[in-house]
Each structure stands twice: as C-alpha cells, then as structure tokens.
Amino acid sequence: MDLELTDRKVLISAGHKGLGSFFARRFLSEGAQVAICCRRDDDLVAALEEYAALGVATGSVCDMSDPDQVAAWVHRSAEELGGIDVCVGNASASGQHGEGPDPWRRSFNTDILGSATFYETAKPFLLQSDAAAIVHIATITAIEHHDVPISPSYGAVKAATIRMVAQLAQTWGADGIRANSVSPGPILVEGHRWDDIRTRHPEIYERDVAMHPAGRMGTGDEVADVVAFLASARASWISGANVVVDGGYTKGVHF
C-alpha cells in the first residue's frame, strides 16, 4: 500500500530516541521529510547523523515545556522544510517521578501546554496542506489503570491530551485537519522504559508479558506503522479516534 507520504513535511517532537526514533525512521522510509526536536544538543546531533542516511531530516534543540521554544522550533522547521503536513506529538514528561506539585506541573507544561502550542503554532501551515494530520502519542495508562513505577500524573495528563486532540478533530476538521491519538501498551525498546523495568523490576516485566494474549511485548515498529498510517492520506476518514496499540493487553471494551 502506498501511504502517499513522499515529500510530506513531518514534525516529530522528541523524535530523537525511543518510540520517536521509530516514527522518524518510518516516515523517512516512506519518502517524507522530517524535522525533530529534543532537549539535548548531543542527542540531536546523534539522531540527525543517523537520519541523514535515510532521507531529508532536520532538527532543533527545544524544551517542550517552554512555549516560546516550541513556537520557534515549529516556525524554524516550517521554513527549513517548506511547510508542514503532519505533526506527531511524542514529547512527554513521563519520567518525572515523586509526589507533590512538581511532577504534575512538569507533565502539564510538557504534555498539554507544549503539545497545544505545537499544534496551534503549526495550524497556519497545516491549513496550506492538502493532507494535514495530527497524531498524538498517548498511552493505555490514560484509559485503564496500569501499576507500573511511574508518576501518578502520567495517566491523568495523557487522558487530558486524548480529550484535547479529539476536540481538535471537531473544531479543525472543517478546515481539513485530521487529529487522532495513538495509545501504545507495553512496548519494549532497548535502553528505554520497559527495558529498564525488565532490569530493575523483573517481576513486573514478566507479569505483563504473561498478561499479553500474544505472550510478548510490542515493538517500536508496530507502533510506528500505525502512526504512519494515521498520518497518511490512506486514513483520510479517520479523525477524532484514539487507536489503542497494545496487542489486546487492556481489558476494557472500548465502544
């Protein structure tokens, strides 16, 4: 299937590692042009060196909790790529642990305010696209309790982002901008969260593997395939959805 992503301009927040790197490589493999952001210059340089071998890629250092930096990244990326067709909101403050207001404040500033600034700043450019799409990365923890060692702000704030994106689908749909969320379940990416849990909390890791109908964790490629499809013209009649990508892990019936 041709996803018709060739030469599409795709912005991916936190597109340098973890699931973000799978998204970037997937879009590049489809012929899209990619702009990423991340907080550290060394991470940015390493990611762009890899992506340069795959296609057209650019990027900027940006703290997604700072609206001014987010807006500057979006404008710079639009200028460098010559427009914006797709926004993939992957940045999250999920690593903020502990109690008290700080984890909640950081999650709000990054996941909600940062993402809202991303999409609102990109809107004038998306309006010029004939296939504009937003794909926001949420989590199954937004729709069902999952007792993994992570800040309690994570699921609550991610649930709010699903609602935010669904509203964008309603309010911006008439302007030709689709908006969807993707909620991955437990995904094993080397060097990242579930890899860390496998090392530090093997009992939780083995329990969750056993709970999967397929008896394994998901992969970054399996999530990236869904993100690329939702961003593509082949998903032209899908908007306002939250697509759960978890191999049947969650127990709720979502209707």
Task: Kindly describe this structure.
Helix 1 links the parallel strand 1 (9-13) and strand 2 (33-38). Helices cover 45% and strands 15% of the residues. The chain is built from 8 helices and 7 strands; from the N terminus they run βαβαβαβαβαβαααβ. The protein has helices spanning 18-29, 41-52, 67-81, 101-126, 153-172, 193-200, 202-211, 220-231; strands at residues 9-13, 33-38, 57-61, 86-89, 132-137, 177-184, 242-245. Helix 3 runs parallel beside helix 4, helix 4 (101-126) packs parallel to helix 5 (153-172) and helix 6 (193-200) crosses helix 7. The chain is an alpha/beta fold and 255 residues long. It has a 7-stranded parallel sheet with strand order 3-2-1-4-5-6-7, with helices on both faces. The model has no long low-confidence stretch (mean pLDDT 93). It has a single domain, classed as NAD(P)-binding Rossmann-like Domain (Rossmann fold). 45% of the residues are buried. The longest helix is centred in the middle third of the chain and has 26 residues, at 101-126.
Distance between the termini: 28 Å
Number of domains: 1
Mean pLDDT: 93
Strand content: 5-15%
Order of helices and strands: EHEHEHEHEHEHHHE
CATH topology term: Rossmann fold
Which CATH architecture is right?
A: 3-Layer(aba) Sandwich
Anisotropy-based shape: globular
The Rg value, from CA coordinates, equals: 17 Å
SSE-based structural type: alpha/beta
Task: Please mark out the parts with pLDDT under 50 across 5 or more consecutive residues, or reply none.
Answer: none
Q: What's the total number of strands? A: 7
